[in-house]
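Narrative of accomplishments. A recurring question from our advisory board has been how the design workflow behaves on a single, concrete structure rather than in aggregate. To address it, we present the structure tokens for one chain from the evaluation set, followed by the sequence designed for it. No filtering or post-editing was applied between the two.
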């Protein structure tokens, strides 16, 4: 494992598991690289999809990783929304039940009195 230089830069993680879009295996960080200064470019440079990019992944692998992260994020968001809606539904049902329990006896009594009282 390489060490960071004296300038205090944090090391860059290296993923050693291949990303193939079909795999459910989680990539594991096994080592790090020392960061190197990145020169600023005036214009973006298009890279060959089969040539590894700066992080050691090819453009195709980065695209697969981005797609997988998008799917996982969307699935998580949907699951959280469903759980939240279920919790809200339960809370609302409890509130309605409590209001019925509090108000229904009085409403029934009033309706019965109005209906059963003899007319003058």
């Amino acid at each position: 494992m390489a060490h960071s230089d004296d300038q205090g830069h944090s090391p860059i993680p290296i993923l050693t598991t291949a990303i193939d879009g079909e795999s459910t295996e989680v990539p594991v960080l096994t080592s790090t690289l020392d960061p190197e200064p990145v020169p600023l470019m005036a214009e973006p440079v298009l890279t060959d999809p089969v040539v590894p990019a700066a992080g050691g992944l090819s453009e195709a692998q980065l695209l697969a990783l981005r797609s997988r992260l998008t799917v996982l994020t969307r699935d998580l968001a949907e699951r959280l929304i469903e759980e939240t809606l279920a919790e809200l539904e339960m809370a609302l049902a409890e509130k309605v039940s409590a209001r019925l329990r509090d108000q229904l006896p009085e409403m029934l009594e009033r309706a019965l009195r109005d209906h059963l009282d003899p007319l003058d």
